[in-house]
Design brief:
By secondary structure, the protein is α+β, with helices and mostly antiparallel strands. It is about 25% helix and about 35% strand. The protein is built from 13 helices and 34 strands. The chain has a twelve-stranded mixed β-sheet with strand order 5-9-8-34-7-6-10-4-3-14-17-16. It has a six-stranded mixed β-sheet with strand order 23-22-21-24-25-26, with helices on both faces.
């Protein structure tokens, strides 16, 4: 089984609390941040009707393929231009877009963004059928359709891939459609039609190499049909008519508990003359010991106007986290909108203090702008050097007043011995900024949907709260030449978490995988071996996923001021074209075959899609394959050799993987345990170094 994330822990609450959302956006021009039919306020045109919306999801070996087909109807007597806006799922790569207008099918190819816009404008002006998919920063994918015929249906289809999260045996998939509430100008300009006249359906096919103990979409128990094809293969189906389309769809699947540590590797190499692409997933099976050291916790909470509609989820999560503190802990609470203020000063986590703080948090209201920098800056005041401190930041990240430059956050946090754990609320949240903040401090971020529920697998979070973690972790591959690999510095690895590593290899052979980390002040090394094949054609989708991971790393470096923006832009644009990905600097132009030829567009995506579909058809017809490579030489079921010499220090965290069905803020407590262990280990090592030098305490 291989279900995981891009080395960043994504923690969310366990149970779905409402019906799935599905929607479209059709308008003349928009900057929307969620699905829904948009029409300008006071427009004389009738809104575009939604005839049907069908979603097909395939979850198999580490990633999900989501295919969406939407049928629109233009009730007006004139042609219209349409824009379908869809929230950008976390780490998603948009790979296909097609339009069926009458008997004509249009297919998409990715080109540089200015070129796509020029071609679309030309085709539209000539009255031709054309479409374009573009990415509007971190908030939306927008699908433009020119010359939608009057009194006629138009069928649009798009496909995207994304890595999945799994933590302690629980996987989580989200189809994000709820309004993010982060674009006030768009909300004031557009009116929304959220109803589908006809059928809404969602079909999910889940295949793993381990038994699936349970598949759940809470809230749909009485309407969803679950078919147990085999112990490692489940299907879910649900449909409705005339549904209101304004909420996310969340799915959980649970694997057996106490799974052994393991290493799995997927690869793709079409022939021996080209580089191969691999994805390695390492699931540590290490006995992480309980810890009881007290820590300081600072909760930094966004109460700006854009958090309206999310404040209940915030309050529930923070209240749950406060309730998990123990008597050795101390905490404080900071809120921010136009300015930051401390509403609960530093105090011991006694039952009385915690109860009063929970009441204060549950009474919070939203208003004003978002001075995120001010909130973060205030949290760094009055740090106690003798105690590990973790900052829990809960926000949608839409900073719009005060200091807003990402590199300023990176500079401020890079000088502090503190760990930030960011929880992003809702769709349209500024995850690039949050990722920059957390990378600078060695923490990580996670997304939280309003449709996640606080009731759930809280015991999974407790295992992280009460147990130590690996820190200063790094993963390397030797013995086979590799390049374009994921940043090898992983930072902290928590109990139940998986580490995902992408890269390319130039020749077949046997490689050595090495995980190095520090555990309670002692350096550890875990190794195993795996074979990189001469030819492997099972997973062509890996090329897009690996390219997307590189793009995300480049974006982080640019935001942090560690890379020239022009160099980053050029590299991202080239990766988008080479691997047919819609990025901030590339778009997908959708035309008939003759128009592609007329504009001199190479059919790279058509050929790539054909390879992916062929592989998917073959996989669907075969039993699920177990891609574990360390069965003969287990990486973790052997005594881990101790490495002599001083520990590495000061490495940046690449974030964490995992994060299935967990309460977000209790999971945040789990994250901070790593900071406690790391700080304790650092003090121990510093003391040992001082003693060796003739000093000491």
């Amino acid at each position: 089984m291989l279900a995981s994330s891009f080395s960043r822990q994504s923690l969310a609450r366990t149970v779905l609390a409402g019906i799935a959302a599905v929607g479209v956006t059709l308008c003349a021009s928009a900057s929307a941040d969620a699905a829904g039919t948009l029409t300008p306020v006071h427009s004389p045109d009738q809104p575009i009707a939604i005839r049907s919306h069908n979603v097909k999801v395939t979850i198999n070996n580490g990633f999900a393929r989501t295919e969406v087909e939407q049928v629109f109807f233009n009730p007006n007597a004139t042609r219209m231009e349409a824009i379908y806006a869809f929230p950008v799922p976390k780490s998603a790569s948009l790979s296909e877009m097609s339009i069926l207008s009458g008997e004509i099918e249009l297919l998409g190819e990715v080109v540089a963004k200015p070129e796509a816009e020029r071609i679309f404008a030309e085709e539209k002006a000539q009255g031709n059928d054309a479409g374009m998919a573009r990415k509007e920063s971190f908030q939306t994918f927008e699908f433009l359709v020119a010359n939608v015929l009057p009194s006629a249906e138009t069928r649009m289809r798009f496909v995207y891939y994304q890595p999945l999260e799994i933590d302690t045996g629980v996987g989580r998939y989200v189809y994000p459609l709820e309004d993010g509430g982060t674009d006030e100008k768009a909300q004031g300009f557009w009116s929304r039609n959220e109803k589908v006249d006809g059928q809404v359906s969602i079909d999910v096919d889940v295949r793993t190499a381990l038994p699936i103990e349970e598949l759940r979409t809470p809230g749909f128990e009485t309407v969803a049909t679950i078919d147990r094809v085999a112990e490692d293969h489940h299907r879910l189906h649900l449909d409705a008519t005339g549904a209101s389309l304004n909420r996310d769809f969340v799915l959980y699947y649970r694997l057996p508990t106490n799974l052994p540590g393991r290493v799995e590797v997927l690869s793709y190499r079409p022939d021996a003359t080209k580089p191969g692409t691999f994805m390695a997933v390492v699931t540590p099976g290490i006995d992480l010991q309980p810890i009881t050291t007290g820590a300081d916790w600072c909760f930094v909470l966004d109460v700006s106007g854009s958090m309206q509609g999310k404040i209940r989820t915030l309050a529930d999560g923070v209240s749950g986290a406060l309730g998990q503190l123990n008597a050795q802990d101390r905490f404080r609470v900071i809120t921010f909108n136009d300015a930051a203020r401390e509403i609960v000063p530093v105090q011991a986590a006694t039952p009385e203090n915690v109860k009063a703080a929970i009441e204060r948090v549950r009474g919070l209201a939203t208003s004003g702008a978002t001075n995120l920098y001010g909130g973060v800056q205030l949290s760094l005041n009055r740090l106690d050097a003798d105690r590990a401190t973790s900052v829990i930041l809960v926000t949608d990240g839409v900073t719009n007043t005060g200091v807003v430059e990402p590199r300023a956050f990176h500079t401020m946090l890079g000088t502090c011995d503190i760990r930030f754990f960011g929880f992003l609320m809702g769709n349209g949240a500024n995850w690039p900024l949050m990722r920059t903040i957390c990378d600078a401090s060695g923490g990580f971020y996670a997304g939280v949907s309003n449709e996640d529920d606080i009731i759930g697998q809280i015991l999974l979070a407790k295992s992280k709260v009460t147990h130590e973690c690996l820190h200063d972790a790094s993963l390397t591959i030797s013995g086979v030449p590799t390049h374009d690999c994921t940043d090898e510095l992983l930072g902290k690895v928590y109990r139940g978490q998986q580490v995902v590593f992408f890269g390319k290899y130039d020749q077949a052979g046997e490689a050595t995988l090495t995980l190095k980390a520090n555990l309670t002040g002692e350096d550890k090394t875990y190794t195993t071996r795996c074979a990189f094949p001469e030819v492997s054609t099972e997973y062509p989708e890996l090329e897009r996923l690996a390219a997307l991971q590189r793009i995300e790393e480049l974006e982080v470096k640019e935001l942090a001021g560690l890379m020239d923006p022009e160099e980053s832009k050029a590299t991202i644009a080239q990766l988008g074209i080479d691997y047919q990905l819609v990025t901030d600097h590339t778009s997908m132009i959708v035309l008939i075959d003759e128009a592609h030829q007329r504009h001199g567009i190479t059919r790279s995506n058509r050929d790539r899609v054909e390879r992916e579909r062929t592989a998917q058809t073959q996989r669907a017809a075969q039993p699920v394959v177990n891609h574990r490579v360390d069965a003969a030489q287990p990486m973790f079921n052997q005594p881990a050799p101790t490495v002599s010499g001083p520990s590495s220090s000061g490495t940046k965290s690449g974030g964490g993987g995992g994060g299935g069905a967990l309460d977000p803020l209790s999971a945040l407590l789990a994250l901070g345990v790593g900071a406690v262990v790391a700080a304790t280990a650092r003090r121990r090592r510093n003391s040992q170094t001082a003693s060796a030098a003739g000093g000491g305490l």
